Predict the 3D structure of the following.
Amino acid sequence: MAPSPREASPKLQQAMEACRETVNKTMSSLLPGTELAEAPLFDGMRYAVLSGGKRLRPFMVMEGARIFGVDAARARRVAAAVEFIHSYSLVHDDLPAMDNADTRRGKPSLHKAYDEATAILAGDGLQALAFDVLANPETHEDPRVRIELVGLLASAIGPHGMVGGQMLDMIGEKQEFDVGTISRLQRLKTGKLIAFCCEAGAILGKANPAHRQALRNYAHDLGLAFQVTDDLLDAEGNAEEMGKPANQDGKKATFVTAMGREQARARAEMLVEQAVGHLRVFDAGRTDLLKDLAYYVLKRRL
Amino acid sequence: MAPSPREASPKLQQAMEACRETVNKTMSSLLPGTELAEAPLFDGMRYAVLSGGKRLRPFMVMEGARIFGVDAARARRVAAAVEFIHSYSLVHDDLPAMDNADTRRGKPSLHKAYDEATAILAGDGLQALAFDVLANPETHEDPRVRIELVGLLASAIGPHGMVGGQMLDMIGEKQEFDVGTISRLQRLKTGKLIAFCCEAGAILGKANPAHRQALRNYAHDLGLAFQVTDDLLDAEGNAEEMGKPANQDGKKATFVTAMGREQARARAEMLVEQAVGHLRVFDAGRTDLLKDLAYYVLKRRL
C-alpha cells in the first residue's frame, strides 16, 4: 500500500523512530527520580517530557551532528537538553493564564494531570536541567564547546528568543499583527530554538563557519515553513495531525489569517525549497534525512 | 544616636548600599529594553528585578570575589545573574497557584502589576538571561571558569536545588514535616543558591579547594541561620522587617513550628558562630564584611 501523503517516507520514518527511542532513553536517564517528599515534581517533569511527541528537534540535533561525525552519545545529550526546553515551554504555554489548554499530545496537560504549581515548577526545573546537562563534561570534553552551546541556547530561549516570542503570541490574541510581526513572532517563538538544534551539531563537530551558517540558514527557512504549515493545519481543523485541539489559534494572528491559505501554501513550498538548497554545501549522502525532513514538513498539509 | 539593633553596622550598611547601587546599574544594563510589541515582557522583567531588595546574594558574590582579588566588573556580572535567578524565583513563588502573594517588597507583585502570563514569562526569561550572562566571555576570559559557574548554578536551582525546595514548600502546606525535612527544604530552596553566591568568587579567582570549601561551609551555615531567623521574624509578625505580609507562612512547616522559638533562636546563634569560624582560613582583613554579614543576619531578629 502506498504511504498516505501525510506520512514521512519509510526511510525517514524509520530514522525518526530510532532517534525517538534512543533520545527517550537518554532523557529518562537524565531526569530525576526519587522516593523523597518532592517526588511529585520529578514525576511531573517525567510526565511533561516522556508523554509522546515526534522529537523533531532531537532529530535535527542528531542529523546535524551526523554530518560532522560527532559521537552520537554526546549529540543525544544535547538533543535531550533541547527537548527538556521544548517540553518546559509547552507546559508553561498550556497554563490557564497562557493558552489554557487542557490536553497536550492527546493526554491531559501537566497542570490538569497534576496541578498548576507542579506545572510551573516542573517547567522551571526542566529549564535548569537543560543547562545542567550541557555544562556537564560528558556533553563534550572541550569547555569552549560546552559554553558556546550554553550561550547560544540561553539566547535562543530568552527574552530575545522563545520567551519573547511567547509574549508576542499572548499579545497577538488581543491585537492584529502584520505579516512582518507574525514572522518575527515565529522566528522568536520557535525559529531560534530550531536554529540552535541544527547548529548544535556544527558546534559539537567544530565545523567551519560556512558549514555552520548553511545549517543556520536551513533551520531558518525550515522553521518558518514548519510554522506556516502548522497554521494551515490549524486553519483546516486537523486535530489528529496537530495532536492538540484544532482551531485553538482561532483568535490569534497566524500566517493564514494574515495572507490567506493559497499564499501561505506557496510561501511554505518556497521556504522548503530554499531550506533544501542550503544543504548543497555538504556531501549529498550526509544530508538525505535533513532533506527528507524538509519535504515531510511540507507534505504534512497536502 | 546609637543604631537600632536591627540595623547593620555602619560599615556593613555602607558597603551593602554601595554594592546595591553598582549591581543595580549592572543589572539595568543587562536587562532588555525595547519599543517593540513584546515590550511588556521586558518591562515585567525590569519591574521584577529593580523593585528594591537588599541584594544580599550579590553582596555575597562581591565579597567572596574580593577575597581572591577578582576584578569587580566580572564579579558584578555573576552577582547580576544570581539576582536575576532570585528575582525569577520570587515572581513564580508569588503566583496565585503558588503562594498567591499580592505584594512583594511593599509593592504589587508582578502578576498584580501586570498579569499572570507576563509574570510566568518574565520569570522564565530571567532564568535564561542569567545563563546568557554567565556564558558571555565578559564574565571571565577562561571558558572553564564560565562553564563551571553555569554547571554549579544550574544544579543549585534545578530539581535537586531551588525548584525541588519550592516543591517541598508547597507540599509542606498540606503535610507536617520533621526538622530533618525542613532543613533539607531550606537547603534546597535557599541554601544551594546562597552556597553558589559564596563559592562563585572562589571559582572566578581560581582559588584552591580548601578555600573554596571554606566558603561553601560558611554559606551552608549562614543560609540555614538566615532561614531560621526568617521563620522567627515571620512568627513574630514583623511585616516591616520582612518586606512582605507577615505570617504568610502560617500554615507552612517552619523551624519555629517544628522546634519552638527558643530552640530556633539558639540554633541560629550556633549556626552564625559556625559560619564565622569557617572564615578563619583567610586573612582577617579580607573577610570582615562577610563576618559582619553573618552577625547582621542574627541581629535582624533581636
